[in-house]
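Pilot study result, target chain (365 residues):
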Amino acid sequence: MKTAVLIFLLLPLLCFCQKKSKKDILTSDLDSVQYNLDSKTLAPSNINLPFNSIEILDARFDTSKLGFEIHKEYAELRTKDFKRIKLVGGIDKSLQLFYNEYYKLCLKDSSNKLLIVVKTLWLNSLPGKKYYENKRYDIEKETYQNINIKFEYYLKRDNEYFALKRVDTVYQLTESVLRSKEVSFKKNDLSFFTYAIKSLIEKFDFTSLIEKAANTKKFSIHQIDSFNRKRFLLPVLTASNLNYGVFFNFKDFSSNAPATTDYKFKRIKGQDFLYIKNDSANSHLYFAISDSTGLHFSSSKRNDIIRIANTFEFFSFDDIYLPKTAGGNLLSMAFGYPGYGDFTGARKQYVLVPRQINMETGEIY
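Predicted structure:
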């Protein structure tokens, strides 16, 4: 058996019977901050949208929030200082209302409607170093916000749907973007998020897309909904119990298929190392350990991960970049957290951060 690759995912199911320490804070214990997604202006009428309205179908693994954020600007952070990001009225209704209100001068009097199926929409206000290495996207590591997006666009005409476009991308609020004179962005609000969701409408020539889709396969809303629900049929989401053993990677975990059940830990210089029976390797990196008390990062059975809707969340140490203030600079220097490189608007700090798993790709947000 070869040494496994660590994929940073250590996940317990919420339904398991497990005791929570009074000192442990789970992501479900965090308070929420709710934003009104609105615009004080209207899009110019020269933007051509050949639809009479825009509809949103939220098909994400977790439809309850957009992500996590924190507003504290000093060195000592606690897990309870993080908050869940939500929109007033819910994500789908709020996004649909925003689109139809902002583009009211651009929408045409026609029989066409635009359906947007939201597969991924995650506002990462705590982008770190650990989970963005060797990923699918060509992205920068030093950034204030990452907005992960996967949208599928459909033309709706007389209760029939035609596929128009699919977008799978990441918008990044980097130092250069923040300093741009064309658009004014802030670090701790929805200004960059609003810019991103507008771009997802204005960057496409929908008239041309409709012409190309006219003779393509037709779908019903039931077919679209059924197709999206199939993503939630992963064995780890449908099983009544998580099988005991060691998961080496995301595939093992999503399949609820431990790679081995014959293992032990050895503690060397204060650290636990995993050993597999009849394996010549000195030790193994691993994905997670599942036992009678849940799923764990290590043999200590701490930092349990909870299931939220159809995904999983946990706290994990990572390097993140926090905004600088005069007081914050002094504290960061005192605690040994200097600024990093040319990323002049932030300071790097190694802290325990709330994360969520994209159950479609295995990526961590």
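One observation from the pilot: Residues 21 and 343 are 38 Å apart (CA to CA). A full batch analysis is planned for the follow-on phase.
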